[in-house]
Design a protein that fits this description.
This protein is mainly α. It has 13 helices and four strands. It starts with about 35 loop residues before the first helix and ends with a strand.
Length: about 350
């Protein structure tokens, strides 16, 4: 759906504005070199959240996929700044194409959180589809096509997060609920800005600056939508910790920005397992004869109670992946998630 600017409200643009969409905010009204002032600078909040989340993800070892996911949100924010600041077609692509790719990365983060990597076909689907959609969008230049495609991506991410609810640590579930409400509010404001533009524009012009900024609903879409994406990826990170048997704490900065912190003792028990690569390699050669031996060795290697009995020559490794737990291993050490190299 297209939005319309109030006729005659904008100053003469210093360059050709050839974007496929012109939102409800008046163009070049505040600064002569910024097309939509509020829609441009509202992305600073989203960018700040994403950059901070990248630092948090690195500090607490969320994993590379989540650092990339938060980085995708940051790139979307930068692209949105460029688009709304210029209203040119190529800058519009820098806003919309990263949205497709970032949603694909978020999908990847949500698939089979207990595994080191999702199945190959799901990886191709989650990351390949955005590229296909981008190619089609570049050829048809229909904004509604992009909006529907991106909406389907978001619904897929929401569905995956719902399916992961059972393995999500209890403190983190509120993050997903808050993300849903934030995105629902953002979507409502986006539609209101589009549908009610002709009614809102006279009111905004009557209010004048800076008060009219409160009614720039697309800018609020950026704030709430970026916040929802931040919360959604944080929840996905908590789900992955939970699927690996690590409980988390949710800390809150300034009562508004929550973030996930894994409990150190439990993460240490999972990440600092003893290297069983030699035994695992042998099991791949003779799976049928060595299954019980491998399971017993892994039990000794991973279960904290058996670490002391493990061979001293075994070296410790980090970031080892998940696998299905055998019955024997569950009985040997039921409190911990089982891992392999």
């Amino acid at each position: 759906m297209h939005a319309f600017s109030m006729p005659g409200s904008a100053a003469e643009p210093p360059w050709t504005t050839d974007a496929l969409i012109d939102w409800c905010e008046g163009n070049f009204e505040v600064l002569s070199y910024v097309a939509e002032f509020c829609n441009t600078f509202s992305n600073v909040i989203q960018l700040s959240l994403a950059v901070s989340a990248m630092a948090i993800a690195s500090k607490y070892q969320y994993g590379a996929r989540f650092i990339v996911a938060f980085g995708g949100i940051a790139i979307v924010a930068i692209g949105s700044c460029l688009f709304h600041g210029t209203l040119t077609y190529h800058m519009q692509l820098l806003d919309e194409v990263p949205m497709l790719l970032a949603s694909g990365i978020a999908t990847y983060c949500c698939i089979t959180p207990h595994r080191a990597k999702p199945p190959t076909w799901t990886s191709i689907l989650s990351l390949g589809l955005p590229i296909l959609v981008t190619a089609i969008y570049l050829s048809n230049r229909i904004p509604e096509f992009f909006q529907v495609a991106h909406g389907i991506q978001l619904l897929a991410v929401i569905a995956l997060n719902i399916s992961n609810w059972r393995v999500a640590p209890s403190p983190s579930r509120a993050l997903f609920v808050r993300a849903l409400f934030a995105y629902a509010g953002a979507f409502a404001l986006w539609n209101a800005d589009t549908v009610l533009c002709r009614h809102l524009s006279p009111i905004k012009h009557a209010l004048g600056w800076p008060f009219r900024g409160v009614l720039e609903l697309h800018a609020w879409w950026h704030v709430l939508g970026g916040y929802a994406c931040y919360l959604g990826v944080m929840y996905a990170a908590a789900v992955r910790f939970g699927a690996r048997g690590v409980q988390v704490d949710v800390r809150v900065w300034r009562r508004v920005v929550p973030y996930v912190v894994p409990r150190v003792d439990e993460k240490h028990a999972v990440d600092e397992a003893v290297d069983v690569s030699a035994t695992v390699g042998a099991s791949r050669v003779a799976k049928t004869t060595n299954v019980q031996t491998v399971a017993a060795t892994r039990s000794t290697a991973v279960c904290p109670a058996g670490v002391a009995a493990a061979a001293p020559a075994m070296a410790r490794v980090r970031r080892i992946s998940m696998r299905v737990t055998t019955t024997a291993e569950k009985h040997a050490c039921p409190a911990y998630v089982w891992v392999k190299e």
